[in-house]
Amino acid sequence: MSRQTTLDAGTVINDGDGLPNSARRLAIFSIAIGVGMASLDTAIANVALPAIATQLHTTPAASVWIINVYQLAMVATLLPFAALGEIVGYRRVLIYGLLLFTLASLGCAMAWSLPSLVVARLLQGIGASAIMGVNTALLKAIYPAPLLGRGFGTNALVVAVAFAVGPTMASLILSMATWPWLFAINVPLGIVAFFLGRKVLPITTRAKHKFDGLTALYNVGAFGLLILLFGDAAHQAKLTTLLLELSGTTLFFALLLHRQTGHKAPMLPIDLLRKPMFALSVVTSVFTFAAQGLAFVALPFYFSSTLGRSPIETGFLMTPWAVMVAIMAPIAGRLSDRYSPGALGGIGLAILASGLIALVLMPGNPSIVDISWRMAVSGVGFGFFQAPNLKGFMGSAPPERGGSASGMVATSRLIGQATGASLVAYCFMLSSAMGAMIALGVAASFAAVASVASFGRLIVVQR
Fold first, then answer.
1. What SS3 class is residue 361?
2. Is residue 373 part of a domain?
3. What is residue 398's three-state secondary structure?
4. pLDDT tens digits, residue range 180-235?
């Protein structure tokens, strides 16, 4: 017999039966808006950097902070927000994350200088982190257990498509309006998601342990310096700077691990990483998103610099990947309700590796068809991986650790993307002419390793 207690602000979910159909649709719509905005703003500002630098009278090098500070804020605070969600409720963290993200987006649109825009982007990244840190955990309260794969498929679809179409959408907006509109469009969407979320998102059971602020600070230092290290290494910073950042990263991780010793619900979920299924899901995710990061940074350079395509043409050449993700993610989500995440993810990643190899082997002057079918194959593989991998993550964590598992979903994705983007710089250092193809070759290797890791989960399950 299912037990659900209706409260003024939502429903307490006790046994995995989820929400009724009508409430479920509204709840997933609210989450999808937030997740879509947070994912879109990870990449959407890249295209506008030259225009922003010119209008704000700053250098291209300084304007890169508009991108870096958003990613840094997200990665540094994901796990603290996930841990906070376990204690105060995932619903509360997500709703306040939506509010902060929306207000910060308005601040970005009204920014009058580079420092004001960077501060607004920092706050926007913190709001996005709150959304991304708990959204997967909330899905387990929204969907009944037999339909959970569909929920993960929808979530994967939103994240992948938002990340893929970001540059194209930015190009279209900039062709009709100025750069502040890239951020202003979030405001009405955020308002809708905020008020809808307050009405329909469920209240979940809360953990009894307290939030450890010092552990959160150590976490922010460790992951913040790690992303800073990746970015500075990609921009060939001085060796002394890199060594200082590496030392700081190591120190904060050591302090974090020491502080967490013996904690029953560690913020950096070492307890979950000891589970082979969860650890292999993390490895699969990091390597896959590194492959995606390599491809999505290298391909625009190849399309524009080598093939001479315009920014809008480049955006449309990236579209087949996003379209096939949109088609495959819901299918993979439904299949993950019936079949092993390890097998489904492994098959998808083998297809992704094949698509990336096909891109490396393109003819010297490829046609639109030559490019499109290869991008489509890569999109099929990537779309087939995400929902099963989410189920592997969340299914290997006990219900009371859902927040930490959700936080690791987003953390592994962002670390993978940051790693891939940083590696592109090294590929171009090896060869300015062939850098994009080298990057795609590395991406194919990463996808192959991820496929092996995913199939490895079959052995773990059988044991």
1. coil
2. yes
3. coil
4. 998 999 999 999 999 999 988 888 778 777 888 899 999 999 999 998 888 777 77
